[in-house]
Amino acid sequence: MGKLFSALFRHPSGRIGLVIIGLYLIIAVLGMLGLTPHDPLKLFAIDRLKPPSATYWFGTDLLGRDTFSRLMVGIRQSMVIAFASVAIATLAGTIIGLLSAWWGGVWDGIFMRVMDVLLAFPAILLALLIIAIVGPGTTTSIAAIAIVYTPIFARVVRGPALSLKQRDFVDAARTFGSSQPYILTRHLLLNLVAPLAVQVTLALAWALLTEAGLSFLGLGTQPPTPSLGLMLSESRNLMQQAPWLMIFPAVTIMLGILGFNLTGDALRDILDPRTQRREA
Amino acid sequence: MTRLLSVRDLRVGFGQDPKANEVVKGVSFDLDAGQTLAIVGESGSGKSVSALSINRLVDFGGGRITGGSIELTRADGSVLDVTKADERTLLGIRGHDVGMIFQEPMTSLNPVHTVGAQIEEAFRLSKGLTGEQAHRASLDVLGRVRIPDAQSRLGYYPHQLSGGMRQRIMIAMALAASPRLLIADEPTTALDVTVQAQIMALLAELREETGMAMIFITHDIGLVAGIADRIMVMQNGVAVEQDEADRVLDAPQHDYTRHLLRAVPHFTSGAAVRGDSARPTASEPIVKVDDLVVRFPVGRAWFKPKGAIHAVDGVSFDLMAGETLAIVGESGCGKSTTARALLGLNTVTRGDIQVTSGRSGRPVQMVFQDPFASLNPRLNVEALLAEPAIANGQRLDADLRKRMAFLLDRVGLPQDALSRYPHQFSGGQRQRLCIARALMLNPDVVVLDEAVSALDVSVQARVLDLLIDLQHEFGLAYLFISHDMAVVERIAHRIAVMFAGQVVEIGNARAVLHEPQHSYTKRLIAAVPAVERRRQRFAVDMTQVPSLVRPAGYEPPAAQWREAGEDHRVRLEEQA
Amino acid sequence: MSYVVQRLLTFPLILLGVSILVFVSIRLVPGDAITAMLGTEAGLLTPAQRESLAAYFGIDQPVWSQYLRWLGGLFQGDLGISSIYGKPVLTVILERFPLTLQLALMSMTISLCVGIPLGVLAATRNERPSDLVVRVLAMLGQSTPSFVIGILIIYVLSVFFGFVPAMGTFTPLFVDPLASIAQLIFPAITLGFAFAASVTRISRSAMLDVLSDDYVRTARSKGASPMSVIWRHALPNALIPVVTLCGVEFGYLLGGAVIVEQIFALPGLGRLVLDAITQRDYALVQGTILFIAFNFLVVNLLVDLAYVALDPRIRIGRR
Questions:
Q1: Where is the signal peptide (chain B) (predicted)?
Q2: ipTM
Q3: What is B313-348 written as a DSSP string?
Q4: Which of B74-88, B394-408, C23-37, C244-258 is predicted with the least confidence, judged by mean pLDDT?
């Protein structure tokens, strides 16, 4: 684990990615603890639409709220939703994909057809369908994104699991009489850590993007809780007078997604046996 | 004879700093027109890199020529130093003066184009032929590489052809340019031994027809005895010996050449079989296989299989304690399926496998072909060796550690190996690990499925010696699955020859190898290359392996056997 | 051919699964089905009216018979009545669909035309400056959400060029092709931006893989020129993963249209879904999502068939 971390840090894009993720995690924790420069919900009535200054680092919005503090809480909101949803999707997807590959036959058919049905919906539409039923909110966003990504994880795990199942070391384990749980965990799951790590990182980027998209549409995090997408959406009518209201949330969203994408790419480079072979 | 090629002090390196990472370290050789040079060496010796430098294909694999010269006499008589030529000139050399064929005929042909399109392209690039002319030329060249039914084959895609056919297509493509030099980079390594013999025969004939020179790269010094005029032996990027073929083979000067010729298994038609332990007739066999049948259904239509692959079709044999039975045959003959069935890795369609329960609960263990694939890369050696014991209810305690240390020592690995991971070992060491692991449960029988085939030739010899030592020490019986007759000759007490899912001949090793009776066994043994067989002409043999797919419900006729001698049985052949 | 047959056989199965999922999910809406169907107007009904409506819509029947009835309706193109528009759902959808389809196709065209050449260029100049520039751009493109791009485009156009893209209306393609394309060009760029980036990345890595394959070495040994090696030998093989990507990404384009149509105020299917959700027009939500999923599945099937056409190893089995 420590070795992987230092390898990531030596990788040029991995280093940038890790720094961004680290920064966002720190901000998210500060946001959770309420350690923002101003109260993100407080209306400073005399300070409406102020450009960035020493007091309001990123300016204020139409209601006089401090943009920087709202961004901090927005990042917290995004990170909580992204991590929670990806954790659920990883767990569910890995179990489904692993068992589907291992049992094969009828079970594989049933599991994978159900996953195909979920994959038949464009991701954001499936999320919208769920939101339409349950109503928007933080929990709904987490559930919606988790359901959207579960089939993707199931496929990511099933493919390599199927090929691992054919490998000689699994056959060898069978000839010793190793138990199924032993084979599933030590021979399959242990070798799936690398592709899963890459997928988890990239899924976090996608989850951030989806969360921002949903709240941009007004169907994610509900006001008054600040969220990055909603802040960007609200800035549209004021982009001529107050461009900072647009620029800062836009950059915050992009940078966060970029951080996870860069790290995921670096991980793939480091863990991919093909690139290792190419270097050798 | 005119000089075609003159290589002087060639140096080739790889990576960021090619001078520091040289793979070829100053190789010189000459080649006359029409001559055949064989470059022999093990993996990493720099033999392929040297050859790929001649048409500078090495550039595309990340290699850089760091020194020396390669002077090639072109068709018009001018001499060109290839190391200094620009890319434009090189395009004129590739596919004109120098043709090439490669090891893997499957991956060397473009999967999305028909073979016809690929051959016609070669004619277009080398001779400017297009359309009807190119088509006719392609038909003609397919005839020259002995491909029947050429007209329809031109429309095939590479995946529709067998390995031998694909290699013929590759040769046809190289011939399109009428090259004066053909570089053959291990062209038969991926092929079965009888197919190898056909390709070698074809190359020898074409060389005589066209008068082209050849550079033949191989790891098998026995193979080149039949075709080479000169031999160059390479080790670690240096040519350790080069001379006339006969002189290298008969009076090798360098230690490494001697090692390749003597220590490495070469086929000797039964002269080198083991002399130890005659077959005890009184005792009961430890493994008894009776009429084993393994079939895989194919072509399911509405849940009822249309037919089945008869992978193993009525195989019977028995194995005594302490003896080695080798099952030999070519790919697809069912030998591995038989081995896997013995360990319960395949579902058995019919038949009986009886194993006398011996020293432990799991008397049969297995070693696989590929030591890279049969060890989980994420577990260390301790976890790998402990797995069979833990699976059978033991605990990872001092006793178990003692057994692991003992076995590591017995297979010749250091004690500190326990904390290391598979990628930190060489191929031969990994196979030793696999052997140690198979012995953890103290089995009576070890199934060795092509267990030395993936190893370099000199490593093969040492692992074979180890296997024989272990057999004596632990009283093991081996079921040794192999396609390599030279290896089988060294380790087998008895041999069963399999063809198309059936055993066609079985008996003591000497009798089967020295006096083969069945026509397939004869063909197989005739195809094995050997140092003694100099410039021997293989007849171009187009016998095809019969399809193993049979309609549902098909049963082969009962086998008729003939006794050919003491412990030597031959299956009677249908009169054609 | 068995691959194609298998795909064609599972297609209706998945479609059935999709319809069950949509049907069940809408039945899960809190409150009763009458409210679900009529939205806020349901509050005005008397209990007697409710009962007769329930009988009329068959809601007093068990769920499975309701589903079968609904499914039977689907086959006749009956997706129910939209409470917002007071028209059959299918009519509303078909009015809005051309815009979204055109938008998705335009984005896909732009992405492929930009992405494939850039990816090939980067692969052939592996590790050289032009490769690095392409890779950085692709990475940024992949990390920029469409709503950020869209807003930036509108901002730049309006602040620096004083130009506001036409919003709110749409000229159908067959009425005035040029105006129609011009109208959707910025939305299409917005929607296709991230897709172009992934096409670039996939074509680059596929091309790199293919360029180290043995048959490329064979082509070089035949004396094929660098251009011929890239376009004739490598690209057809490298395109196989790009085609797979197109199938998956078409779904993202249809889904992404929700956001892009919102930004540019375009009357397409995406806007329709949003309006339906915010105004609780469940028949419309159900119908639109089903319609989009159906289209996505059809496109995926077509892509799979294209994939088969590209790869003879799947098209033709061994002889």
A1: none
A2: 0.85
A3: EEEEEEE-TT-EEEEE--TTSSHHHHHHHHTTSS--
A4: C23-37
Judge whether B365 is closer than 8 Å to chain A, CB to CB: yes
Question: What helix, strand, coil percent values describe chain A, rounded to 5?
Answer: 80, 0, 20
CATH architecture of C93-269: Orthogonal Bundle (1.10)
Q: Write down the pLDDT at residue A25.
A: 94
Q: Is C158 on the interface with A (CB under 8 A)?
A: yes
Separation between Cα atoms, residue C251 and residue C296, nearest integer Å: 6
Question: Under CATH, what is the fold of the domain B3-97+180-263?
Answer: Rossmann fold (3.40.50)
For residue A224, cis peptide bond before it (omega within 30 degrees of 0): yes
> What is the Cα gyration radius of chain C?
24
Task: Search chain C and give the residue with CA nearest A210.
Answer: C145
**Chain C positions in Cβ-Cβ contact with residue A212 (cut-off 8 Å):** 145, 147
Task: Write the burial class of residue C158 (CB in 10 Å: 0-12 exposed, 13-18 middle, 19+ buried).
Answer: middle
Confidence tier at B468 by pLDDT (50, 70, 90): very high
With CB atoms and an 8 Å threshold, state whether A190 touches B383: no
Contact B163, B184 (CB under 8 A): no
- Residues with Cβ within 8 Å of residue B575, at least 6 apart in sequence: none
List, as ranges, residues 142-161 from C with C-beta within 8 Å of B.
Answer: none
- From C155, which residue of chain A is nearest by alpha-carbon distance? A239
Judging contacts by C-beta atoms under 8 Å, the chain B residues touching residue C237 are: 110-112
The CATH architecture of the domain made up of B266-356+444-576 is 3-Layer(aba) Sandwich (3.40)
Name the CA dihedral angle for B165, B171, B177, B183, rounded to a multiple of 10 degrees: 160
Confidence of residue B576 (pLDDT cuts 50, 70, 90): very low
Tokens of B11: 């140096």
Residue B344 sits at the chain A interface (C-beta within 8 Å) = yes
Phi, psi values for residue B234, rounded to 5°: -115, 145
Please, what is the angle between helix C2-27 and helix C282-310, to 10°?
170
Cβ of C316 under 8 Å from any chain B Cβ?
Answer: yes
- Low-confidence stretches of chain A (pLDDT < 50) are 275-280
* CA A141 to centroid of chain Cα atoms: 12
Q: Mind telling me how many Å the CA of B43 is from chain A's nearest CA?
A: 15
**At a CB cut-off of 8 Å and minimum separation 6, what does C224 contact?**
B95, B121, B125, C232, C233
The CATH number covering residue A78 comes to 1.10.3720.10
Residue A235 is assigned to a structural domain of this protein: yes
A279 belongs to a structural domain: no
Q: Which residue has the tokens 């380790």?
A: B491
Q: What is the pLDDT of residue B401?
A: 92
Nearest Cα to A144, choosing from A132, A126, A156?
A: A126
Q: Which residues of A touch B365 (CB under 8 A)?
A: 175-176
Structure tokens at B319: 């194995």
Please identify among residues 93-132 of chain B the ones whose CB lies closer than 8 Å to any CB of chain C. 93-96, 98-100, 102, 104, 107-114, 121-122, 125-126
Residues 6 or more apart whose Cβ sits within 8 Å of residue C276? A132, C82, C84, C282, C284, C285, C288
- What pLDDT shows up at residue C319? 42
pTM: 0.85
Q: Is A120's CB within 8 Å of C18's CB?
A: yes
Do A32 and A78 touch, CB atoms closer than 8 A?
A: no
Does A280 map to a domain? no
Euclidean distance between CA atoms B338 and B340, whole angstroms: 5
pLDDT at B492: 93
Neighbours, chain B (3 or more CB pairs < 8 A)? A, C
Structural domain boundaries enclosing A6:
2-46+56-271
Q: CA geometry: angle at C39 spanning C36 and C41, to 5°? A: 130
Contact by Cβ (8 Å): A160, A195: yes
